[in-house]
User: Fold this.
Amino acid sequence: MQNNSICNNHDIGEDSVPHGWSSINWAIIEKQVGKLQRRIYVAKLSGKSSKLVQRLQRKLINSKANLLYSIRRVTSINRGKRTAGIDNLKYLTPAARFKLFDTMSKMDLLAWKPLPVRRVYVPKPGKTTLRPLGIPTIMDRVIQAVLKNALEPEWEAMFEHGSYGFRPSRSTHDAMARLWRIINSKKRVWVLDADIKGCFDTIAHGPLLEKLAGFPGAPLVERWLKAGYFEKEEFFETDTGTPQGGIISPLLANIALHGMEAALGIRYHRAGYVRPECPFVLIRYADDFVVLARSEAKVLEAKEILREFLETRGMVYSPEKTNIRDLRKEGINFLGWTFRLYENSPRKMRIKAFKRAKGDMVALVTPSKKSIDSIKAKMKLLFRQYVSKPTDPLILRANSLITGWCNYHRYVNSNSTFRALDSFMYAQAVRWARRSHVNKSWTWIRNKYFVQVTALRRTKTGRRSLNLSNWGFRANSGRTIKLFRHTPLENYSSIGYGRNPFNPADTDYFKDRKLDRLFAKDSFRKLIHDRQLGVCPRMWTRYREVRLG
Assistant:
């Protein structure tokens, strides 16, 4: 029986056009989009004719599979799916999404005339200041996603290893793990901690469009950049920058900033480390980056080199966020963590296996004060909002906050931070209970809400130990608030040098990597996987092929 999805390598056949949104086989859609993306990546990496790359990109742009994949991502998966542009249109129902596909499949996407974005202001995380956000229309977002799928594989074949922000299969944890390894080597202890002022709003259009020369969608990208924006029903032109809120904007920012390692003369050994003769190491996440060197003079030299590099692209340093530090005396805050070299202390290093030479230093990564203050403020506000209200919703929201925060910081030295936050949360729980029951005694409150909590915790050797806590906050239903300290710490393995999800040779590498991350969150599933030798007894297929395709 023929499947109602796709029968060609790159497009939907006439005899297999889906008859409705629910009849689409998304696994085949993703497989065919990924197949063309891998062909683009391989063609660019192997240095073949640029005409071949452009032909494959045009093929993917015109693919109906790519259009379906983009519509689904914009209208169903992305968090901004309920936010409309200036046309005030949304496509939230399956029927509306399929109608949008039917309309756009008859259009010439490269001839599209973009509409201006709607300018809104959102608060910066942990600050009272606002940042501008440009919201394109749904159709603009879909076409941006279509072009992004065709443009990204080409540039992934060229992007530098030190770039981690807004790239597939790379995260803040990859940047953290690599930065820790470099600091822990104690060879480069001087750091330039820099940030670009208004990066997305100041990108010069000329140099960016020069880099996109030859890309079939370059004229359309230029029309997006020049489309302007509406703010309070007043139109403004845009001569610089790319709107924050556009799907393709992070990729364009990475393209604009590409070349920072080349400007610093950074070269890599085939094993993945920076060659010893290179004085600098760069780690960048979007517009936030650090440069490590062996001396203060070299850091100042790197700062001047990158200042000239940024000026040619219309960007400048943010003065209040750009600093030069010696990691032996003070740390740096990067991506929500504090990185610093600490001198070993006999009191802290009692275990013989961990003793080091006198005067030696150790690199530690801890949650930054800003991150700690942020979770404290959220927990404090949450307990204030639920005074004299049911306990179950309070615990559900608190557990969601705690789980997300702990999962982000579980790969660094967070034990002492977790315990301190548990003490803070205990004080908030006691205050909530006393405010909710002003006429009850402490004995009554303690017996009603506070219990002793036990939890199984995995040690570094893989064994499990019983972890007893002296308190737990309990609802009437028996649901208990999660404690920070019950989150086990894990080691994080950063992405390997030269590895890319668009490279067919790295397919098994990324499947195993996803499987490791999955098992890190669910140890019971790993136990079952090991018992079954990685094979599903029902389908007789390897687990990673079933789960990760």
Q: What stands out?
A: The chain is about 40% helix and 15% strand. Residues 1-10, 349-355 have pLDDT under 50 and may be disordered.
